What does this fold into?
Amino acid sequence: MTGKPRAENAMTSTVERVRVGWVERRRTVPAHLAQVFLDVYRDAFDPLAALSPARQALSDEEFLAAMDDESVVKFVGWDRDEQPRAMAIMTTDLNTVPWISVPYFEARFPDHHRRGAIYYFHALLVRRQSQGGPWARLLLEELIRMVARDRAVAAFDSCSHTVEMSRLPEMITRVANRLCVLDPIELDRQHYYGYVFEERT
It folds into this structure.
């Protein structure tokens, strides 16, 4: 895929920019870039459909709509060859998340809700050939800086499989503790029950 000129909103440090590239914050992304990360999104989230009883991901249509929705902030990592390597996605409008209860967040964080300062983290996507490098940390750093500057709440959901395998909550805490004051809260833990019935013989 062809790269792009350096973004006017390049936010990584000079040292990181020289070494690996830069991070750009965008409100919308062009269709070709949206398709690149839709493929990464599907690779990451499709396996969860058989591992959790609850829906874990946006549909293709919802993902592409989010890429064009200005309330959904995209942090895009570009390498020195101007190729996209990673994307973090966070919405500033809870109504764009189809499976959460907005009244719950309004009641739990009333002051933040009044300020429009409750954000929801959708995904941290790193292209397969770039996994294991610095991109997840770099994108998280920029996302956390935005949330801390806005004195906001950032929430996300994750099934138990993903928590155990990715350790994302631990990663967020580790990165955030270097950058800001953090109060991590486990908001809920939902259980699903199944009963298998048979007639008595």
Notes: The two ends are 64 Å apart (CA to CA). The chain has eight helices and five strands. Helices lie at 14-19, 31-45, 60-67, 102-108, 110-114, 135-149, 160-166, 168-177.
